[in-house]
Amino acid sequence: QVQLVQSGAEVKKPGASVKVSCKASGYTFTSYGISWVRQAPGQGLEWMGWISAYNGNTNYAQKLQGRVTMTTDTSTSTAYMELRSLRSDDTAVYYCARVWALNWFDPWGQGTLVTVSS
Amino acid sequence: EIVMTQSPATLSVSPGERATLSCRASQSVSSNLAWYQQKPGQAPRLLIYGASTRATGIPARFSGSGSGTEFTLTISSLQSEDFAVYYCQQYNNWPPGWTFGQGTKVEIK
């Protein structure tokens, strides 16, 4: 079955960087894009950006431009999201999701908690 | 950026009753709207796409309607497993990107 499995929880200090992985299985990785969505504690969903697994094209949310980089490794069917210059308000659960033709997200990974604290 | 506004923020419903959730877009998104369900501690799950098409495996008690700027998710007879938070998402505006509503929590009355 189609599955996205994310890396484990991270604790980082302010100013540091974090890189979260998302390993896909059960489908042709390069036929879909991957989006990243985050959710701060008790809050709603915030779209962060998208990457094409076919050609590596990206589109990032304006709010995160300059701090976020999304990449893929097609040899291992894995997507990565790196966020730099972490602040306390970056504390959130980070989700990856497969994107259907620049449309809806299905399925989602299980989420990765990133805690930013001094 | 297209702003998605959901109402109400919280909906209290008894099991077996009907629930109606609303999602409004700040400008037309045609039928390019999806609904997701999220239970505590879990990732969101796709329920509806194209405003009215149920995703694979989604029970028929879930239905979506609307187009343009006004959308509705209806749960015809609430089951215990349906108490969760529901989000709408527009995918009409690309670029710059996609946006979610702030969510509606469906709780037991």
Beta content of chain B: over 45%
Biggest interface, residues from each chain: A-B, 24 and 23 residues
Query: Radius of gyration of chain A, rounded?
Result: 13 Å
What's the assembly state of these chains? heterodimer
Give the low-confidence spans of chain A.
none
Which shape of chain B, going by the Cα principal axes? globular
Q: State the end-to-end distance of chain B.
A: 35 Å
Strand content range of chain A: over 45%
Radius of gyration of chain B: 13 Å
Order of helices and strands of chain A: EEEEEEEEEEE
How would you characterize the overall build of this protein?
The complex is a heterodimer of chains A (118) and B (109). Chain A has 118 residues and is mostly beta strands. Helices cover 0% and strands 52% of the residues of chain A. Chain A contains no helices and 11 strands. In chain A, strands 2, 4, 5, 6, 9, 10 and 11 form a 7-stranded mixed beta sheet that branches. A 4-stranded antiparallel beta sheet of chain A has the order 1-3-8-7, with no helix packed on it. The radius of gyration of chain A is 13 Å and the shape is globular. The termini of chain A are far apart. In chain A, 40% of the residues are buried. Chain B is built from no helices and 11 strands. By secondary structure, chain B is mostly beta strands. Chain B is 0% helix and 49% strand. The chains are: A mainly beta (118), B mainly beta (109).
How is this structure best summarized?
The complex is a heterodimer of chains A (118) and B (109). With 118 residues, chain A is mainly β.
Topology:
The complex is a heterodimer of chains A (118) and B (109).
Chain A: E1 3-6, E2 10-12, E3 18-25, E4 33-39, E5 46-52, E6 58-60, E7 68-73, E8 78-83, E9 92-99, E10 105-108, E11 112-116
Parallel strand pairs in A: 2-11
Antiparallel strand pairs in A: 1-3, 3-8, 4-5, 4-9, 5-6, 7-8, 9-10, 9-11
Chain B: E1 4-7, E2 10-13, E3 19-25, E4 33-38, E5 45-49, E6 53-54, E7 62-67, E8 70-75, E9 85-90, E10 99-100, E11 104-108
Parallel strand pairs in B: 2-11
Antiparallel strand pairs in B: 1-3, 3-8, 4-5, 4-9, 5-6, 7-8, 9-10, 9-11
